[in-house]
Amino acid sequence: MTSAVKAAMERSLIFCIAAVYIALQLTQFEMLSFILGGLVFAAILVLLPNLKGMTLWLTIFFLVTGVVLLMLQKVSTKIWFESAGINVTIVTLFLFAPLFGIPVRLPAYVMALKRFYEVNLRSKSALFVGTQLLTQIMGVFINVGSIPVVYQMVYVRPQPGMNQLLANALNRGFAGAILWSPYFAAMTLVTSALGLSWSSVLPYMLGMAVLSLAVSWLVDFRELLQAEPEEPSQIIEKRERALFPLGLGVYLIAAIIVILTMERMIKLPMVLLICLAALAFPLLWCLIKGEMTVYREGIKNHVTVTLPALQKEITLFLAAGFFSGSIGVTNLGAMVPSLLEQVPLPVFITFSFLTVAFIVGTSLIGLHPIVPVTIFAGSFDPSSVQISPIYFAVLLLGSWALSNPISPASAVNNLLAGLLKKSVFEVAKPNYKFAAIMALGLLLYLLVVVR
């Protein structure tokens, strides 16, 4: 089999999984769940030879352990296929959500944004906070693609001693996007598993995003105090000539409004709404702007470059979903709350602390946060640990976000390590203090604001 034929077959499997999932959600035809599960097993087996290192061994572990658990529980065939399909929402999201990023990369917007960045963010503090905020906003729409885009703007005129600080800002900005982006796997997984709408958790997650900006600035406050701002007259003169690109701002706001409006008006799962919006809105925007060439190039790049690059994550996520389903049919969800009752603290406090510690701890040793989050979301009934579904969602999303900057397995840390020519641990280490303070902040935020 030639590499071209193999690549086409792998892409076809991914497209088929998304198509069958959408059909299942629209028709609720039970037979489709068996077809979907079969496609997932086929995709894992076909994509498995492409994996290497820890990702390969984790995927094998999830598959083998899942099979053993389901065999021991003697479950029906239906449960096997339903377990296999638990994380297909994420595959569907990978297929459609990146289309929102195509208009963001319009040449006029990129040039105007570079000009705005170079002219206005001159002091170290402004550059640091601006970089983190811009990465967060861009990350909502173009995911990890926001890192090289903002990186190129940041290093147009780098300031001495700012390399690591700017890497921190990029890293933490992306973590902020994880908190509230409707287009990320984190939000899709958590809200789908808990039966929540994106709009119901959005206010709380925006609060966490603001908290992450504040904590990040405080953590690196001493280094930022060494700033030597440019002369005020120069700054004022330049600000008059460089504003944030209006067209880009309108597009970003409109894309969020479209999703919020569709969520309230159309009674479909959030993933399907994102698929519909991703197909129509970026196309319409590029059509109006007369940038169909950019749109066609973006589609081609997505199919031939982005999707193949995501195969490692897709395989791991599908296997993690299957493993989570096998855990779900055991008695784990009932056993843990009864064990927590033995601790001389309210169950919800103990559970919250252990959840944060487990997700962050496993991320530190290289396990992707989707694995523990999938298990937690699929195994525990929030009421059994004295919390609400929204509380649980904020807990899981917050833990995922704060663990990303310290994980040696995160795509952002590996990308930044390559750009800065450092080891992944050198990039991650300055974020340990940030993660620790954010973990404490998350627990306090849950107690004071959410509960």
Overview of the structural elements:
The chain has 451 residues and is mainly alpha-helical. Helix content is 77%, strand content 0%. The chain has helices at residues 3-27, 31-47, 53-73, 77-84, 88-96, 107-120, 124-142, 146-154, 163-180, 185-194, 198-219, 221-224, 232-239, 246-265, 270-289, 292-309, 311-328, 332-340, 347-364, 370-379, 389-403, 411-420, 424-428, 432-450. Helix 5 (88-96) crosses helix 10, helix 6 (107-120) packs across helix 8 and helix 7 (124-142) runs antiparallel to helix 8. It starts with a helix and ends with a helix.
Can you lay out the helices and strands and say which pair or pack?
Blueprint: H1 3-27, H2 31-47, H3 53-73, H4 77-84, H5 88-96, H6 107-120, H7 124-142, H8 146-154, H9 163-180, H10 185-194, H11 198-219, H12 221-224, H13 232-239, H14 246-265, H15 270-289, H16 292-309, H17 311-328, H18 332-340, H19 347-364, H20 370-379, H21 389-403, H22 411-420, H23 424-428, H24 432-450
Helix pairs in contact: 1-2, 1-5, 2-4, 2-17, 3-17, 4-17, 5-10, 5-15, 5-17, 6-8, 7-8, 7-9, 8-9, 9-11, 9-21, 9-22, 10-20, 10-21, 11-21, 11-24, 14-15, 17-20, 19-21, 20-21, 21-24
